[in-house]
Amino acid sequence: MEHTLHLCKDKKIKKLVEQNGIFTLKKQKNVCTYLCASIMSQQLSTKVADVIYQRFLNLYEGKGPSPEQIIATAPETLRSIGLSNAKVSYVQNVARFALEQGMDHRKLHKMENEEVIEYLTQIKGVGRWTVEMLLMFALARPDVFALDDLGIQNAMIGLYKLDRTDKKQFKEEMLRISKKWSPYRTYACMYLWRWKDNPPPLK
């Protein structure tokens, strides 16, 4: 795999590749459902988020709903599956935007990464990080770097001995290091997250 060979030029990432094998990216067709799931999972553990998302799908016979179906669902019903008031309105904002402005994966595929971020962060409740995750895991873009992700930051502090005391300098260092991973920064992020899940034993 070309991306693996490229990333292995970085000795620290090479170690993670050797430990975790080769990752692949897969496109998701239902962007609206993916974005709703991202909003639901914010500030929750993966386990709790999965339960809530399954309850959400169960409202629609286990399938990803259309934007029309989401808008037609009463806010009380969405609250009853464990969503906060804010998340209920954000999920409905996503569905409304999908209907009024369009969120079809074919439309988004014509846009550059930054254009997609600019377009979807117009939705109240959708921030840059959420769209970066969508670019990576729904649109399968290979060169996205999640600068503000805590897991990525912690992994880079651990692996590259960075210091986050000076936030501006810290982020500049992260960007400098990540440049050499381009055009496969999405894959680099996947390895960095894996490091966070399996930190090396303390020496």
UniProtKB/TrEMBL annotation:
PROSITE patterns: ALKYLBASE_DNA_GLYCOS. It catalyses: Hydrolysis of alkylated DNA, releasing 3-methyladenine, 3-methylguanine, 7-methylguanine and 7-methyladenine. The keyword DNA damage applies. This is DNA-3-methyladenine glycosylase II. SMART domains: ENDO3c. InterPro entries: Alkylbase_DNA_Glycosylase/TA, Alkylbase_DNA_glycsylse_CS, DNA_glycosylase, HhH-GPD_domain. Keywords: DNA damage, DNA repair. One of its GO terms (cellular component) is protein-DNA complex. It is an enzyme of class 3 (hydrolase). It holds the Pfam family HhH-GPD. One of its GO terms (molecular function) is alkylated DNA binding. Gene3D superfamilies: 1.10.1670.40, Hypothetical protein, domain 2. Belongs to the alkylbase DNA glycosidase AlkA family. Residues 40-197 form the HhH-GPD domain. Its EC number is 3.2.2.21. One of its GO terms (biological process) is DNA alkylation repair.
